[in-house]
Amino acid sequence: GAVVSQHPSRVICKSGTSVKIECRSLDFQATTMFWYRQFPKKSLMLMATSNEGSKATYEQGVEKDKFLINHASLTLSTLTVTSAHPEDSSFYICSARDGQVGYTFGSGTRLTVV
Amino acid sequence: GQNIDQPTEMTATEGAIVQINCTYQTSGFNGLFWYQQHAGEAPTFLSYNVLDGLEEKGRFSSFLSRSKGYSYLLLKELQMKDSASYLCAVMDSNYQLIWGAGTKLIIKP
User: Fold this and answer.
1) How much is the pLDDT for A98?
2) How far is residue A94's CA from residue B97's CA, in Å, rounded to a whole number?
3) CB neighbours of A12 closer than 8 A, spacing ≥ 6?
4) What is the residue-wise DSSP string for A91-111?
5) What mean pLDDT do residues A84-109 have?
6) Closest chain A residue to B49 measured between Cα atoms?
7) Nearest C-alpha of chain A: how many angstroms from B22?
8) Smallest Cα distance from A66 to chain B, Å
9) What digits encode the pLDDT tens for the residues B22-44?
10) Cα-trace Rg, chain B
């Protein structure tokens, strides 16, 4: 089946630094990838839709200058959390339409900003 | 506005059957998904319904009634490993996924 690889799975960083999260579709091409954020005991919150070769579409309330998204190839999308603050600590998950009926998710990244 | 409702938490006994309901109000409809999510992990795909009726896949079944804006996920022969959150999501007319808050299912021996 379709596989989406997401790295790193866990990262701890200092306030003010930037963190890059990678999301790769391993056995299919993903022209569109989705980036979600999930708070404890809450559902997924769509942050942005990443489109290969063009600018990402951000949801209302999501700062595009803080959450930089790059989708340079059909198999790779990256999310960079810039100038991270403790309130950015969360579970970040990417997903891609797998060409069948479902959306395949990456394994998620647990970001802790200290 | 768009809205997905599902119970926050349910408890069931190992070996029993449980039904998790989901009601939705969305701008358009292009299918309904059920996902399973264990704590600290990403969601995994369970089912997709776009036509009315029951879809059976092993111990899990999913039902859809588009006229009622209603779906349910039926889990049979419950096992302890089924303890997880179950997320209902609807694809709207713009092919965007609208997510419910999830139902935490607790299985007791």
Assistant:
1) 74
2) 13
3) A112, A113, A114
4) EEEEEEE-SSSSEEEP--EEE
5) 88
6) A101
7) 14
8) 23
9) 999 998 999 999 999 998 888 89
10) 13
